[in-house]
Amino acid sequence: MKSPIRSLSPQESRVVLGLVERGEIFVERRQIIDILGGGAQAADRVIRSLRRKGWLERGSWGQYLLISPEMGPEILGESNVLALASRIAAPYYFGYGTAATHYGLTTQRRHVVWIVTPARVRNRRLLDSDIQIVNSAQSKFFGFAPVDVLGHSVTMSNCEKTVLDCIDRPRLAGGEGEAAVVLATACRRMDWHRASDYLERIGSKTLVRRFGWLVEHAGAEIPEDVDERLREIASSPGRSFYGPKASSGDAVGYQASWQLVVNASRRELAESAGLAHRQRVGWQKRC
């Protein structure tokens, strides 16, 4: 069934064409008031109508995303929630399960968008997605760059940082099992030296131990010098955990070579076991 056609009244056309001529993608309420040259109430009526007809999507109070005429005449139900959410915080990057989904490292589809930022902003809901804010320590706020999402530039963690973030906080990636799948899927496109540099920069022995064991678990080939660097860091006193502190009957258990207690269940980790070794070489989306 065809979608309804996006129509425009004379006033609405004035707003849309005015924004297009200015090259505006994101627009504030006051700009629409200025274009129309009338009062705020009249502008609000036009904004409501443009939203209903599929020309504007609200990002936050008084801020909107213009759904360009280039998207076609039909009401598409704009799903570029990342373009809208990118206006919530600055600086920021999309990470964890959101970045893993963008790069094709997970097949899970969630209605949660993870924004990493040092700014103190609140969670909110946009379109049909929950926007969850992750306040990052400055020492971990790196490893991101602009990417294109449906014609809009947004900031996303790169492949290596996405993997490390997911195994650092598996809950934000769908759990320990899914974080392991993310790492295993990324192995054939991983820059191992970059990942090693990131691990040293973060300075977490627990993260190094998790990463090292999960690489082995996935059956990935890793450069010898990187493996030696990681094992040297992991060999310091103490032990770390992957999964809950309390073990279940099906838990993998203690891995002496990485001084890691793996309390995730064997069933949960079954999908990622040997996955990097099993992957066939083919086209994959670059991170």
Q: What would you say this structure looks like, in words?
A:
The longest helix has 14 residues, at 205-218. With 287 residues, the chain is an alpha+beta fold. The radius of gyration is 23 Å and the shape is elongated. It has two domains: 10-77, Arc Repressor Mutant, subunit A; 82-278, Beta Polymerase, domain 2. It has helices spanning 10-22, 29-36, 40-52, 81-85, 96-102, 159-168, 176-186, 192-202, 205-218, 224-234, 266-269, 275-278, and strands at 26-28, 56-60, 63-66, 93-94, 112-117, 124-126, 129-135, 144-149, 152-157, 240-242, 251-255, 260-265. The protein has a four-stranded mixed β-sheet. Residues 72-78 and 280-285 have low confidence and may be disordered.
Give the SSE map.
Blueprint: H1 10-22, E1 26-28, H2 29-36, H3 40-52, E2 56-60, E3 63-66, H4 81-85, E4 93-94, H5 96-102, E5 112-117, E6 124-126, E7 129-135, E8 144-149, E9 152-157, H6 159-168, H7 176-186, H8 192-202, H9 205-218, H10 224-234, E10 240-242, E11 251-255, E12 260-265, H11 266-269, H12 275-278
Parallel strand pairs: 5-7, 10-12
Antiparallel strand pairs: 1-3, 2-3, 4-5, 6-7, 8-9, 11-12
Helix pairs in contact: 2-3, 5-6, 6-7, 7-9, 9-10
